[in-house]
User: Fold this.
Amino acid sequence: MQCANMLLRKIVRSSVLPFAAQHGMKKDLFPLSRTLSLSLSLKQEKSCEPSEKLDLDEWKKVMKSGLQEDVSETVSEPKELSSLAAARETLEMWRLAGRAVPENISEEQLKTFMECPSKSAKKKYLKYLHLRELHKKNDKRKMDEKRERRLEAQDQASNTDETKKSSFICVWSSTMDKAYNWRAAQSMIFGQPLVFDMSYEKEMSLREVTNTVRQIVMSESCNRRSVDPFHIHFCNFKDDSLYHREFIKNYREAWGKLLITVTDKCYTEIFPKDKLIYLTADSPKVMKTFDHDKIYIVGSMVDKSIKTGVSLARAKRLGLETAALPLEKYLLWSTGAKNLTLDQMMNILLTLKDTADWKKALEFVPKRKYCGFVNKPVKELKKTLDLMKTLKLRKGREEVEKQFAKNHPKKFKLK
Assistant:
């Protein structure tokens, strides 16, 4: 290739250049020589391909357009960066001014902020980002607190496990378990029956069934540790149901060793109807005393998810007697529904069975639902409160004072 170029140059210098100098064609000859050299070289390299002419003007145009695009890109990028930097500076100024501005903001959020049509829209968008950031911080703080509590509980459990390793505590726990099992076995023969109605599976979701089973497990453990436990019956219980699967998850291998009666029959087929009492919060009849000869039925369901009156309608359909706990008689109710969890019902019934004291039994009601215990019925208390209001308003003062004197001759005296 180099030898061919050298020969071409010698030929051009020896023959062509003198001729061109004589006729004044030196300037126009160099492009011709360049095209000739290129064509020769191309023919030597690619002899099989046809020769192509190079259009230098078109090539220059293409190169210039590419340079202009590169320059425009390099110019546009600093403009965009400068606008983003200006937006960040405005955000810093607003933050120093005390406005609701998020601490961390991404480039996409900055672009949406810049695209807002008005200043009020920008303020609303920044307020939204600020509130969302606060919610994320609160959620993270709550998760950290839960993690710390869980770690503390694990540490305490590990400490208790270490204490359980001692021989005396192991012997004590095993003997107490034997005593509890002996009481539960005796209750299956001599104890008072307590029925859990397991016929509400279709009216609950899977999550509600799991909550119900968890409450029943807690009720069974409270009953097994009591002095005089009930003989628990699971009636209308079907194999391979949601209840059955959840009980197996909770008890595992101990499910077949529980000292309870599980049957798919209805309680009306096992016990006489005149002894059955269905406990429901919707019953118009209030339970006054605990009857040791009766058999109480508790619906195995979560009351929050079911419409009111479902258990009452079921009891009426079966022709059973119903009763409700006297919550309004002994408690000054504040807020919330008068439905209790299954483990709370179990603790109340066990306390009534052992002591027959409503005040001790109703201590298992959550304290957030009532203001306190009342010595007198709530109806009389409401009457006295109404009379006090009328006295303050000075409406019918003489009649009210006479009525007060009749109702409370010792505490209130007429002036």
Observations:
- The first helix runs from residue 2 to 23.
- The longest strand covers residues 193-197.
- Residues 98-160 form one domain.
